[in-house]
Amino acid sequence: MKPKIFITRMMDEQVAAPLREKFDVRMWESETEPVPRTVLLKEAADAEALWTVISDRIDREIIEAGKKLRIIANMAVGFNNIDIEAAKEHDVVVTNTPDVLTETTADLTFALLLSTARQLTVAESELRKGNWKSWSPMQYTGMDAGGATIGIVGMGRIGEAVARRAKGFNMTVLYHNRNRKPDAEAAYGFEYRELDDLLKEADFVVLLTPYTKETAGLIGARELALMKKTAVLINVSRGGIVDEAALYNALKDHTIWAAGLDVFETEPVPLENPLLTLPNVTVLPHIGSASIRTRLAMMKLNAQAMVDVLEGREPENRVE
Ligand code: 8YV
């Protein structure tokens, strides 16, 4: 009997087809409905590999149901959706997809930054609604990115890629990170700041830190109050890093100028989320890594990791 792989979303057939030759590949074939928990539990029970995405909660119950489980390959660099401790206890390897998405996610971060700063989505929707009736000097005006100060919270691979783009816009780059990056400071002139100082000085605060116990709720009412009235907050990491209720108040009361969000506390975002009612918020449906080339590269990395583990080899990108 071929080992079973359960795939929780529609995997591209160019990646899935070679897997089918060696394994019994089962797939949740819906682009609109996420795999129900009951199905996930049932399928995990006799699967040797699980291919998952960030919105699949792979907790202890699923891992313990997976009596034959040997690998969980997660299609993301972040892996806060998986109980890593439970996986370790049960000798289940977890792999992720770093590097291949770095530049694509940095592009999206910069696109969201510019779009939020210049109110592109508001301006476009006004035009489409027929509300652009006359040209006026201060209509649809926003904030300049060129020459501004950017503060990057989480200077990992994606943070550095964003910082390099910022240099191209002649921005001053401040960063906050668990560890200082002396090489990047020397090579590019990035300047380290404590978080509070970064929040006070930056025109653009960009969140790129992983979601952990330490970073959950990192940006709350106190932190937002430190930011400039003209500042823009960009979050492309995980929604839970920001206290959404506090952010809503800061944006509604104009104690900060705008926010660009690719990620939310609850995803997909319920339409009741009050942030959606504010004009000074630009929202995207978690598309940081969503270029065709990158998404295929991520799937291929996951597929190779599953083949490696099921054939007894050490995979690349094992999460520690
Ligand atoms: C994923 C992401 O593409 O890599 C991450 O951590 O959040 C995105 O790049 C997306 O969440 C699909 O799992």
TrEMBL record:
Q: Which UniProt keywords apply?
A: Oxidoreductase
Highest taxon, organism lineage: Bacteria
**Keyword Oxidoreductase found:** yes
SUPFAM superfamilies from the xrefs? Formate/glycerate dehydrogenase catalytic domain-like, NAD(P)-binding Rossmann-fold domains
**Ranges for domain D-isomer specific 2-hydroxyacid dehydrogenase NAD-binding:** 110-288
InterPro entries annotated for this entry? D-isomer_2-hydroxyacid_DH, D-isomer_2_OHA_DH_cat_dom, D-isomer_DH_CS, D-isomer_DH_CS1, D-isomer_DH_NAD-bd, NAD(P)-bd_dom_sf
> PANTHER family per the record?
2-HYDROXYACID DEHYDROGENASE-RELATED, GLYOXYLATE_HYDROXYPYRUVATE REDUCTASE B
What family is reported?
Belongs to the D-isomer specific 2-hydroxyacid dehydrogenase family.
Its recorded name reads D-glycerate dehydrogenase
